[in-house]
Amino acid sequence: MTQGKSALSNKAPGDSFSGQSSASPSPPSYEEATAGSSEPCYNDVEMLTEFTWDDRNIRRIFIRKVYAILMIQLLVTFAVVSIFTFCDPVKDYIQTNPGWYWASYGVFFVTYLTLSCCSAPRRQFPWNLILLTIFTLALSYMTGMLSSFYNTKSVVMCLGITTAVCLLVTILSFQTKVDVTSYQGVLLIFCIVMFISGLVLAAVLPFKYVPWLDTTYAVLGAILFTMFLAFDTQLLMGNKRYTISPEEYIFATLSIYLDVVYIFSFFLQIFGTKRE
Hints:
With 276 residues, this protein is mainly α. It contains 11 helices and 2 strands, in the order H-H-E-H-H-H-H-H-H-H-H-E-H. It is 70% helix and 1% strand.
């Protein structure tokens, strides 16, 4: 690129009118055009890429957008959980009509797969926000119904614990120099352990309830999704080994929102007291 610029600058003003015989300068090659360039190169094919994110303004806007949407999602979920926990008529209705739970689970599963696996609807406005809204309402209903089976004080206590843990993990993820995004193998092994434990739990519980096994599974789940919260938070920062494309703000919001909801659900299993 510098050679092309010097060639243009060395031309005399009258050279462009000297006639048809003078050959025009050839365009710079790709190597010349990209030599010395420090601009980030975003790979739209893969959400998780290895690139340097030098534009701090883009990063700040991206993080602000993600957390703005996330706060709205958490407020909606908190409102639904509060209604299902404190309003007795609503609580009795949802507990006597479990079909709505399975319907919301189906909506949750379909919208989650659509937003996670299909990049077109995830990036196309306003369909991405519409799908995210439907996903949020479905998961909020499922979380609210789960909370309705626990004591009100237990739900409030678990909400406080979840808030404190998520704030602490978020702050540490932004401040620490430890690159959590490079520990994908550890998270994968942990997910396999959780999957096998879930299968064992599903096979054992129908025959005999084992409290310590259920509690152990909940503790492992809380630890796993706390680690995922740190992992997804550092993907937003842009100064670690792996980072997420700024076009994927819907996927980033979806991931952190799921982490927070799952942490609350597992804390509810650990510390919650079921209604008699």
